[in-house]
Design a protein that fits this description.
Layout (H helix, E strand, L loop, with lengths): L2 E6 L4 H10 L4 E6 L5 E7 L6 H11 L6 E4 L2 E2 L3 H14 L5 H16 L29 H11 L14
Antiparallel strand pairs: 1-3, 1-4, 2-3, 4-5
Helix pairs in contact: 1-2, 2-3
């Protein structure tokens, strides 16, 4: 997994904390853009090896203006959703069975939201209730394609714990 985060320089204290963490990333470059505004690019080419730092950096950078990120080359559209999923993945690694962790989280959410009594298509709390959006009518996209779209919208398609049904 490859995570890249661009953080524009600023004198703001929150930006300084984020930039300090960015400089600790496995790879960090300073890029000069238009108007000589500098941006720090923190790259986590092997995200699981630096996950603690990535979670902390994202937490500091998430509310800064003009921060952007990519995961495996795909732009992160919603930094907050991504950060929440990143924290979930981080927590799952502290479990002996990460898949069981995901199943427990989804099970709690399904009970709260009144999940229908049918086989779960995926055990991810960020997709759980969204699976109700799946269209099963003739002519609809395959369920696997619909779930992939939902996973991207939820900013979790990158998660190694995520299992989606095949086409």
């Amino acid at each position: 997994m490859d995570l890249s985060i661009w953080i524009p320089e600023s004198d703001d204290m929150a930006a300084q904390a984020a930039l300090s963490l960015a400089r600790q990333a496995p790879a960090c470059r300073i890029l000069t853009g238009q108007g000589a505004r500098r941006t720090h690019l923190a790259v986590f080419a092997d995200l699981p090896r630096s996950l603690d730092l990535a979670v902390r950096l994202f937490g500091e950078a998430i509310n800064l203006p003009a921060v952007r990120a990519t995961i495996n080359g795909r732009p992160v559209e919603n930094l907050t959703k991504f950060w929440t999923a990143l924290i979930c993945y981080h927590e799952s690694l502290g479990e002996q069975d990460p898949q069981a962790y995901c199943l427990r989280r989804t099970g709690r959410l399904g009970k709260i939201d009144g999940c229908p009594d049918r086989a779960c298509l995926t055990h991810c709390q960020f997709i759980c209730t969204r699976c109700l959006q799946i269209v099963r009518e003739s002519g609809a996209l395959p369920v696997s394609a619909q779930l992939q779209t939902i996973a991207r919208q939820a900013e979790v398609e990158w998660c190694p714990n995520l299992t989606l049904p095949q086409a």
